[in-house]
UniProtKB/TrEMBL annotation:
One GO BP annotation of this record: transmembrane transport
Keywords: Cell membrane, Membrane, Transmembrane, Transmembrane helix, Transport
Organism from which the protein derives: Bosea psychrotolerans
Family under the similarity heading: Belongs to the binding-protein-dependent transport system permease family.
Keyword rRNA-binding found: no
Protein name: Peptide/nickel transport system permease protein
Pfam family, one: BPD_transp_1
Membrane topology: Multi-pass membrane protein
Entries under InterPro entries matching the protein: BP-dependent_transpt_permease, MetI-like, MetI-like_sf
Domain ABC transmembrane type-1: 78-266
Superkingdom assignment: Bacteria
Transmembrane among keywords: yes
Database matches in CDD domains: TM_PBP2 (cd06261)
Amino acid sequence: MGATMIVRRRRLSASSLALGFNLAVVGVVLGCALLAPPLLGYSSDLNMAEALQPPGAAHWFGTDNLGRDIFVRTVSGARTSLLVGLGVSALTLTAGGAIGLLAGYVRTVDSVTMRIMDGFMAIPGVLLAIALASLLGSGLVTVMIAISVPEIPRTARLMRSVVLSLREMPYVDAAVSIGSSTPRVLFRHILPNATEALVVQATFICASAILAEAVLSFLGVGISPDLPSWGNVIAGGRQFFRVAPWIIAFPGLFLSLLVLAVNLLGDVLRERIDPRLAARRAS
């Protein structure tokens, strides 16, 4: 019994430590997104006399081929990347959650809607996002839409599976038996109990969207180069990687740390929210 308690305490301590580290990383990036652009700007001025300078006291992360400060562009690009991640999460959860909510509760909607979602899921997400970004053009909002469309079917299927289990609960049967309308049952009894799964899903969508934005910008179909993002900075330095690897290294490091922290944050939240998973790990 004593050994079991020690193991549980160690696991709880490790989970708390992981949660604190992930929140710290996300907090630092969020602080850069909020404070860096007003204080430092976007480093859009060209200075060819200082092109391809290595990291030093004058330029902590060095400069790119146009003489722009990589440190300023990296910390300022956090705003764009976070905006994309949070915007895609909001769009995906709203659209996918609504579709999954109706499909899981109304059988006539389920048979048609899920076949459409299956058709979208048959197309690789990156290819669909590239096609939509090419059609809609560059821009922050269009990139959010292009990344959101491939994520909506996955969120809809998750929401549908949760609703299918919740609709069999006794409290839902009781609400229906007293004459509650379908919208009241959905928004008063089912949706509040399904938000836990959506919260965890939002973290994974945010991380995936940040990566997708970097891929689109790297391929030249993402956000305009005038607005710095980590994908744009990496794309601008790919031709000079051999002589100036710092152009790619620092924004790539920020991108990797943020995506890793958000993904691990989702895992920790899932353990904290789902009592069955927590009990299974503790046993």
